[in-house]
Amino acid sequence: MKFIESIKNQQVKQWKKLLTKKEREKTQTYLVEGFHLVEEALKDKNNIIEIILSEDIEIPVTWDIQQLSLTKITSEISKAISDTETTQGVFAICKMKQPSFQTLKGKSFLLIDAVQDPGNLGTIIRTADAAGMDAVILGEGTVDLFNPKVLRSAQGSHFHIPVLFGRLEDWIQKFNQNQIPVYGTSLENGVSYKQVEPSSEFALLVGNEGNGVSMDLLSLTKNNLYIPIIGQAESLNVAVAAGILMYYLKV
User: Fold this and answer.
1) Among 17, 104, 164, 231, whose CB has the most other CB atoms within 10 angstroms?
2) Could you tell me which residues come within 8 angstroms of residue 90 by beta carbon, excluding any fewer than 6 positions away?
3) Where is each RNA 2-O ribose methyltransferase substrate binding domain found (predicted)?
4) For the whole model, what pTM was predicted?
5) Do 124 and 214 reside in the same domain of the chain?
6) Number of domains in the chain
7) Radius of gyration of the chain (CA)
8) What digits encode the pLDDT tens for the residues 154-177?
């Protein structure tokens, strides 16, 4: 076990850099913070490169950290590498993973087109996990999966459900080739979601908070669905809408 006291230590500087997307992509690693997220990461120790613990924090007795690198740090360093106002003093450096279409199991998928709010993306991933979806696919323009706010909102679900990246046009083509129907979401030129029969095989496409799904993508879908607005609200939050549709469509 190492102990680092200086906030100017090169290792500390490297950890702080992981709060930026550029460094995360460069190193293919990211930082998770807090007891819950680290505990979720520990369910598969292959996720973890290193555990970092503030000197005033004790490791829970239920955690198995054998064969993992452990570094103790001062509370000052803990605050410096934290993305929260009040840090819990426990962190893990994790590896980015990128599954491929060929390795995916199951036939229910969620496609995300340019969702930009970190809280929305994290909530959508968490809901997809809860609804039993088989994978989430992030298209271009979507907020970084490993943004600390996304990770906190997802509550560890990105460890449980495959999250992939790529051009959604290509993914839709793959689903069409595999006879998996793709349903877009649109308030215009669509049908009520209740007119579609739930199924074990489908892909659901949701879009940007302000602009929705791009018209180019909507032109490639089997059907475009909408959720009727009964009250006076103009529209539903994308995470709420995604949750309603996933739970309805999935059998």
Assistant:
1) 164
2) 33, 34, 35, 38, 51, 52, 53, 54, 57
3) 31-100
4) 0.96
5) yes
6) 2
7) 20
8) 999 999 999 999 999 999 999 999
Residue 102: predicted pLDDT: 72
Closest CA to 250 of 213, 207, 196, 206: 196
CATH number of the domain where residue 42 is located: 3.30.1330.30
Q: What pLDDT is attached to residue 99?
A: 81
Residues 203 and 187 in one domain: yes
DSSP letters along 143-184, please? Answer: PPTT-HHHHHHHTTGGGTS-EEES-HHHHHHHHHHTT--EEE
162 shares its domain with 220:
yes
Backbone phi, psi, residue 113, to 5°: -105, 100
Range 100-127 average pLDDT: 93
How far apart are the two ends of the chain, measured CA to CA in Å?
48
Q: Which two tokens stand for residue 242?
A: 């995604």
Residues 51 and 162 in one domain: no
